[in-house]
């Protein structure tokens, strides 16, 4: 009993020091002078533009990586093919790679002097220093999560239920949609939550590929950094609070969706 | 014939699962594929279902060649040993799944599911989830699910293998009655010869990737065409070149035409039947079965000397050999 209490205390102190404490301080610092300054800070044109860009990035990167993640997980869990291990390692790579390296690699490929850069510019699309580059960088760093969460649960699920559905006349799409995905929904939802969190919070890769122009190519995280560098602490803290609230809302909404799905 | 299997072969890596197997399943019959584990019986069933692809050979269902046809289009119902219940769906939605993917009207699905719930005796449990059912109930649900789409053929892969002995016995009798009602052509895979004899009207005995004999249960027991089949259906004594069933050994107190003598080693009373373990004078062990009345009439005791005669024995010609 005592030992249990001791462990709990250690875990509690650790969480407070590392996670809860700093978060509380951010909230407290933002609201120190009341709601007014916070509202002014997050409703400034630059803050709204940054929020829009972050949400746009999430709206593209999360669905894209979810669909890709499901397909990659199905292939990795079900099929044996030459190069399977290499494919699996490749999907893990963004976890190990520093986001700054991802950003630099994208600049080398899509930049003005890069491989495809001139071609893209000739077709009227500038990737680096604008939205496509930011979305691309975010997609790369948030790539592994859905696959990583799904592969073990798919393995555990086995193939019997899918075989049963096939003998009952379901086509492959119906099998995935009505049997496989509902059966692994916990893993899938967790993967989507992690992906969303990473997309919203990404800084390093985006910092390299975005020109960091306020109101144009600034995501929320870049905006926070920018305000901080400009000694606009209320602005930085307010935007941080908004970011934290979006993350918490994501977790809560997905949990609620899931609970409704179970009943 | 509802199912025709012609010269099917299948190999997994280096393991030969089926070696040019042919089989015909008559319309409306309940045929058992019986054999020890690893004999290829489940593989044959899965190939009929389209869940495995044969390396060679062809399959017809209802006269049409389905060899390259996907399981979705074969008009089969399949029941798995471990139920393969859709855990996230209610019993009702499990049973209605096949109709639902065929986009039948909701009212029709509801009516058909109600009918099936009654047939498999799960009325009132339609809104439960599979995890809230017992093993026997889950397997009945799986059967209803397979029957919902009116399959031309019902395929059962060790359907009672995961259940305890009492439930297994009940479900066997129930399956037999169900088959008499529905008359769906059925193939059942089992390793249990008692189960095959109780449920099936035809049995195909498999061993080492081949079918060794096909026929009604009685014929396989009384007139096996090779020693494997004879030994698979119960204990067998070997006397020289002959094979004798324990109940075909007659024990006498006096020679009575019997030439062999043996000593009673052990007597096991199994109610109506008594099993006598004997040792012949040349040292060979025999097992005889007699009724409790016969044993009492003979006054058998351990250590007695008795004369042994075979009422009926079988000698297999070479080429039928083991």
Could you describe the largest sheet of chain A, including whether it forms a barrel?
Answer: none
Assembly form of the protein: heterodimer
Order of helices and strands of chain B: EEEHEEEHHHEHEHEEHHEEEEEEHEE
Biggest interface, chains and residues, is: A-B, 17 and 28 residues
Reconstruct the topology from this structure.
The complex is a heterodimer of chains A (263) and B (322).
Chain A: H1 2-30, H2 35-42, H3 45-78, H4 84-96, H5 99-110, H6 117-122, H7 131-141, H8 144-157, H9 160-167, H10 172-183, H11 185-201, H12 204-209, H13 220-229, H14 233-262
Helix pairs in contact in A: 1-14, 2-14, 3-7, 3-8, 3-11, 3-13, 5-7, 8-11, 9-10, 11-14, 13-14
Chain B: E1 3-12, E2 15-25, E3 30-34, H1 41-49, E4 56-61, E5 64-65, E6 76-79, H2 91-101, H3 106-119, H4 135-147, E7 153-157, H5 165-182, E8 185-190, H6 193-199, E9 202-207, E10 210-215, H7 217-222, H8 227-232, E11 237-239, E12 242-244, E13 249-252, E14 260-270, E15 273-280, E16 285-291, H9 292-298, E17 305-310, E18 314-315
Helix pairs in contact in B: 2-3, 2-4, 3-4
